[in-house]
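Sorry to interrupt, but I need a hand with the structure work. I would like you to pick a protein and set down its sequence and fold. Please put the record directly below this note.
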Amino acid sequence: MAEHIREVADRIRSLREDNGVSIEEMARATSRTPEVYASLESGEHDLTFTFIYKCAAKLGVDVVDLLTSESPRLKHYSIVRAGDGLPVESPDGLNYLHKAPFFKNRIGEPFYIEVPYNEELEDAPIALSHHKGQEFDYILKGRLRYAFEDHIEEVSAGDTLYFDSGREYGMIAIDGEDAALISIIFRPKDEVIA
């Protein structure tokens, strides 16, 4: 995992330097201080998908370019078989599979996400993050507790959520069991990558 993180961080740094973007600009784009951004770009820490997504948007590339160094090429359709997809490592304990990584000019980022139950998190404040755009989540199994800034919602298999992901949100699995969902992150119109 550490080697993959370092590779992604190196791609981010190289693109930032090639495009003449300062660390301060990237820090603002990723909602980090320049010091924290620099430590993430150095590969010293795990990178969240939200951080990588924000870097890709600022640098004008597809998130898959940063994750794999391959640009999406499919234009007509894409099939990703059951259990397959591009794994996205995440320090938050969630297991992501990108379900359309090589479809070019996506307006959304579709993921299958497994949310492991963690008893320690059930009574703790939910960690929040945000990214530009909107998000659609369809719960496949288990129960989840979502925090939307200071509002809490609990959802079960078959429930859907659609929300402004530019505002802070987070989720955890509850009731002693793992959960899974399909999540589609929609980019703002001004961030569609050609």
User: Anything to note?
Assistant: The longest helix spans residues 2-18. The beta strands are 86-88, 95-98, 108-115, 134-141, 143-148, 151-156, 160-164, 169-174, 179-186. The CA atoms of residues 104 and 181 lie 24 Å apart. The chain has a mean pLDDT of 91.
